[in-house]
Amino acid sequence: MITLQLVLLVSSALFCLGLAIVLLRRNAIIMLIGIEVMLAAANLNFIAFWRYGAEPGSLTGVVFALFSIAVAAAEAAVGLALILLVYRHFRTIDPGRLPVAHD
Amino acid sequence: MAVTIPSDAAPPPGRTSLAFPARRPGLTLAAAAGVLVVGTTLLVLLLDRKAPGILTGAVVEALAHPATAPLILKAGVLGWLAEGWGLGEPWLGLASISLSLFTIVAVFMGLFALTSIVERKVLARIQNRYGPNRAGLWGLLQPVADGIKMLTKEDIVPAGGDRWMHLLAPVMLAVPAFLVLALLPYGPGMTVVELGVGILFFFALGASAEVAVFMAGWSSNNKYSLLGAMRAIAQMISYEMPLLLAALAVVMLAGTLSPTLMVEAQAGHAFGFVPQWFVFTPWGLVGFVLFFIAALAESNRSPFDLPEGESELVAGHMTEYSGFRYAVFFLAEYIGLFGICGFAVALFLGGWHAPLPVLDFIPGYLWFFLKLYGLVLLAIWIRGTMPRVRIDQLLAFSWLFLIPTGFCVLAGAALWHFTGGGWLGWLVVTPVVTAPYFLLLPRLQSAEANALRTYRFSEE
Amino acid sequence: MNLTASGLLFFAFAVLTLGAGTAVALVREPVRAALVGALCFVGVGLLYLWLGAEFLGFIQWLVYVGAVAVLIVFVILLTRREDAGGETEGGRFAGLRVLGGLGVALALFGALAAAVLGSGSLYREVPEEPMVLEIAALGRELVAGAVPPLILVGVVLTVALVGGVTLALVERKPDA
């Protein structure tokens, strides 16, 4: 029997994994993957609350997750375009080596 | 000038001879699978006494009712399993699904073999030559010869490539292609996996093909492979949009995401002879053409076969593939074509419905396969007659013409719904869906758009 | 705790997702990391499917695997140069950074897990048989209650698309 707590534990672990990816990696693109992982973990929570919620007929959680996926896609598109621009300008995608990040 | 080969050269370590490469996993695999299937079947039939009676009964009944023959045969086999072998419920369900899957895979493998020879024959005829005609009657055994050749070839992994990814890529392309076949509605009650959101699953599977192509290109450690893969992905993404928009129009009017229900929505005949297929509405006709063009591009068929344009990219992402793995790529492309044509049939061409009421005596699944194969033949015909387009023309064609047309089809479908069809619908919808053809296409066909292009290989 | 087939499936999907996520943090080669990331998104989609949200699971595959992962891989290839190298290993505080990052992530997980486990059973026990999201109901919900956000999301996506293309566009000098 899978309880809500178990699903929430998985999603918290996924969120922390995303955070760890952002903190440990020094490649802006991989960091973006980490952010997407965190978003996916949040969506997992919404769907879990819908599934285990008191009113299964209420679809707010699903609708929210749907919007969240759409916004995440937009975020990825803009983020990657920015990374590309930064790369063209500074020839690196390591945030630690960007001149602006030093002071 | 004769080339002398030193006969006393020692073979490289690990190999006994240069003529017989050490790695031939394809042949071994195929032989093992064949022996396993044939052996198990023989063993089962020999050991079981009740089988002939039950199975003969099923065959006789199936011959009497051709319309539902596959269902009767399946029920017969399941009945035999339940009676003769005493199979219980969870196993019976599993057996039912395996039977359906096995049948579908067998049918489409046969179709694949047939198409590989039909395509070469038809192309040859278009080019005024004979085509393969040596192996067997009319060259019909050519697929067998090709298969043996493919399976006995050496399996090469490029040095410096990613070994596992190189192995995984063709499989990742083939498995989704076969999964699509499980979603097709072959006849009433004959969908293998009845999924409420079937069409969405189809597009999700298409998305995994892009990743597979990228894996193939990247793991080959070859610039042609990588360039070919990048082109293929750019093309697939660009043409997924019109495919999706055309399908969305059908989703809107049929009010469902399930292919089976879409086919059911196209039942019946107007005035007693005009089928109510979506292709016979103005938005459906344009949508079908859109879907089919995008389908050709999605399955890398000519005139959109740039990713493997041999004049510039050797063979694109398949350059470094050989033997068994190349065969799997080849298989996946054809199966993908069948799957996408099957969806075109289900979405626009009425699925299993007969074109005329008097033709209803022909079983639905035969109609489905007839239509499917008609589309495949159309694709072969197009391949034989159209020149390949240029990469910038290819992308411009999708973004500047097909996608706007897709939106017009969507608007046309909405207008069709609100006018309730009929003559008013035709009057209102026809200008909407044909407008892009008159407004947008001339610009793409202009001399400036097709002028000689200077290629830029590097930005720096 | 007795495990049914459905429960085993959940654990398999969870292990796949978390394992792929861990691999993203560990694999050094960016392209491989991105592909493992795609696997992680596939795993999340499978979890959605397990929870009964078929529609969202397939949307997740379509968007994350078909669009986001492919986009990421493309950008990795476009930003790849021998002299730029991969990631700078080391630096003055490399060890400290790794320790700090792991520490923050683990501390957060601890806090979240404590909150989850301490929350008690606010929610109902669900039956074992899967519940399937009704598409028609979802559509009605969207059209009835969420029209302005729907339009807004459309605008956001369009702006993001145009903005992304504008940002990434290389200004070309006219051909000589």
Overview of the molecule:
The complex is a heterotrimer of chains A (about 100), B (about 450) and C (about 180). Chain A is mainly alpha-helical. Chain A has 3 helices and no strands. The model of chain A has no long low-confidence stretch (mean pLDDT about 85). Chain B is mainly α. Chain B folds into 3 domains: about 50-85; about 105-150, no CATH class; about 155-440, no CATH class. Chain B has helices spanning about 25-45, 50-65, 70-85, 90-125, 140-150, 165-180, 200-220, 225-255, 260-265, 280-300, 310-315, 325-350, 365-385, 390-420, 420-440, 440-445; strands at about 270, 275. In chain B, strand 1 and strand 2 (about 275) form a beta hairpin. Chain B is globular, with a radius of gyration of 25 Å. With about 180 residues, chain C is an all-alpha fold. Chain C has helices spanning about 5-25, 30-50, 55-80, 95-115, 135-145, 145-170. Chain C starts with a helix and ends in an 8-residue tail after the last helix. The relative contact order of chain C is 0.07. The chains are: A mainly alpha (about 100), B mainly alpha (about 450), C mainly alpha (about 180). Chains A and C meet through helix 1, helix 2 and helix 3 of A and helix 1, helix 2, helix 3, helix 4 and helix 5 of C.
Percent helix of chain C: over 70%
How many E strands of chain B? 2
Spatial shape of chain C? globular
Q: Helicity range of the residues of chain B? A: 55-70%
From the 3D coordinates, which CATH architecture of the domain at 8-81 in chain C would you assign? Up-down Bundle
